[in-house]
């Protein structure tokens, strides 16, 4: 499969842009001079230990990156690990302290190529890191901003409120070093919802990294899709759209908690589920 090179892609897919003005602004961002941030757009947002699942080996030849929400995500079977500082001081979540200590140990050894932070600080524990803007900015300035001086690419906090988020603008005003890539979480029913979220995050003028996406009815709460045909159609629309947008440099389906029993990509034995196989079939044909 052809290696995904960001600089070349800006020309190849220029005619496919849905919003030439905003995408052009992101395309001009200096981060695009650093080709190959991830080797392929398609990836996988997983969980701790996802790389040991049998289904991961099936996906590995066709994905360029994966995440497991930890600060020391290792490359595995040719797939680039994308680490994250999940949360920090100011978060009362039970996993925060251990993950912060793990981050401090990991970056002491080696500055990562790419580091994201934080995981949905705008929503509550235990599924999100629950941090105020001020607390998140403080930890960013003390722990993440210094990585940039060593060449690390920084990804913004990911937000659970999607198009309704009001976190990043005040956060940006309080940090000492801006993020390079905007991390996007998308939980929508259809392509129209996906596009609406993307348009919102384009206002920050940065390349977009869709670090999670899933088929979810979020109009009145959070109801994961349960019909396999609907999920398959959702994937068939989402993946080509992500591939066609030059300012979207990566995308990966979510496999976190709260997504029901049909969407998750792995069955109880660790092999690909029907949804995982549907995703594999789509990215295999790219």
β-strand amount: 5-15%
Corresponding CATH architecture: Alpha-Beta Barrel
Global Rg: 17 Å
Supply the number of helical segments: 9
Q: First CA to last CA: what distance?
A: 8 Å
Give the uncertain stretches in residue-range form: 1-22
CATH topology: TIM Barrel
For the largest beta-sheet, the strand count, sense and barrel status come to: 4 strands, mixed
Q: What is the highest CATH level, the class?
A: Alpha Beta
Please state the oligomeric state of the protein chains shown: single chain
Number of strands: 10
CATH homologous superfamily title? Glycosidases
Descriptive report:
By secondary structure, the chain is α/β, with parallel strands linked by helices. The protein has a single domain, classed as Glycosidases (TIM Barrel, Alpha-Beta Barrel). 34% of the residues lie in helices and 15% in strands. The chain has 9 helices and 10 strands. It has helices at 6-12, 20-27, 54-59, 96-109, 133-148, 168-174, 191-202, 228-244, 274-284; strands spanning 43-45, 65-67, 80-81, 84-85, 114-117, 153-155, 182-188, 208-217, 223-224, 248-253. Strands 7, 8, 9 and 10 form a 4-stranded mixed beta sheet that branches. Helix 7 (191-202) links the parallel strand 7 (182-188) and strand 8 (208-217). Helix 5 (133-148) crosses helix 6 (168-174). The longest helix is centred in the last third of the chain and has 17 residues, at 228-244. The radius of gyration is 17 Å and the shape is globular. It starts with 5 loop residues before the first helix and ends with a helix.
């Amino acid at each position: 499969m052809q290696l995904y090179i960001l600089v070349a892609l800006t020309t190849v897919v220029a005619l496919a842009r849905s919003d030439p003005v905003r995408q052009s602004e992101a395309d001009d961002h200096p981060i695009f001079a650093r080709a190959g941030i991830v080797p392929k757009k398609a990836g996988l947002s997983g969980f701790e230990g996802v790389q040991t699942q049998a289904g991961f080996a099936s996906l590995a030849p066709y994905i360029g990156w994966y995440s497991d929400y930890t600060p020391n995500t290792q490359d595995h079977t040719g797939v680039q690990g994308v680490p994250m500082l999940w949360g920090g001081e100011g978060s009362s979540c039970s996993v925060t302290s251990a993950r912060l200590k793990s981050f401090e140990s990991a970056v002491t050894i080696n500055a990562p190529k790419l580091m994201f932070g934080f995981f949905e600080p705008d929503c509550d524990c235990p599924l999100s890191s629950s941090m105020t803007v001020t607390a998140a900015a403080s930890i960013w300035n003390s722990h993440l901003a210094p990585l940039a001086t060593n060449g690390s690419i920084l990804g913004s906090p990911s937000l659970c409120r999607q198009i309704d988020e009001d976190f990043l603008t005040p956060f940006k005003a309080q940090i000492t070093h801006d993020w390079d890539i905007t991390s996007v979480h998308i939980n929508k029913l259809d392509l129209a919802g996906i596009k609406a979220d993307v348009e919102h995050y384009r206002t920050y003028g940065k390349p977009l990294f869709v670090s999670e996406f899933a088929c979810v009815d979020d109009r009145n709460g959070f109801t994961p899709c349960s019909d396999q045909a609907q999920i398959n159609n959702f994937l068939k629309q989402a993946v080509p759209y992500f591939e066609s947008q030059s300012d979207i440099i990566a995308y990966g389906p979510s496999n976190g908690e709260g997504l029901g029993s049909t969407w998750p990509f792995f069955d109880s034995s660790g092999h690909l589920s029907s949804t995982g196989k549907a995703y594999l079939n789509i990215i295999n044909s790219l």
